[in-house]
Amino acid sequence: MNTIRLSLVTLGLALAGCSFAARSPDMYRDDTRAVLDTKNEQIKGCYDELLKTNKDAQGKVTVKFTVEKDTGAFTNVSADPAGTTAPPELTNCVTTALTGLVLSPGDKSEGQATFEYDFTTGAPAGAEPVPPPAG
Fold this sequence. Notes:
- By secondary structure, this protein is of the alpha+beta class.
- It contains three helices and four strands.
- The chain has helices at 25-37, 40-53, 88-98; strands at residues 2-14, 59-67, 74-79, 110-121.
- The radius of gyration is 15 Å and the shape is elongated.
C-alpha cells in the first residue's frame, strides 16, 4: 500500500497589529491541516503517478507557505530544498496541488507554516505532527 504521511513541522503566528488572535495556535495548526487534508487524494495521485515509472520512489516534500490574515489565502507555496528529498516531479505536483487553498474563515493573524509530506511504500497512513526544533 502506498501512503503519505503529513507532518506538521512548524506553524508560527505573526501577530500583525492585533492584541489577540481569533484562533489559538493549536486551533490554527489544526484548521490549516484540515485544509491541507482536502488535497490528500490529489497528492496521493501525484505519488501513484510517479510510482508508475519509478517503483522505488520515496522521499519527503517540505512545503512552506503563508496563510494571509483576514482572507486565509495560502500564498507563497513553495518547497523547502533543505527539507525535501523527493524527486522534482513529485515536489512540483505537491506544491501545485496546494496552490490556491484558503483557510475559511480567515484569521486576524497571519500564519507562517511548514508542513512535511513523507512518501513511502508500505508505511502506515495518517498525519502526525512533528514538534518544532527546540531552542
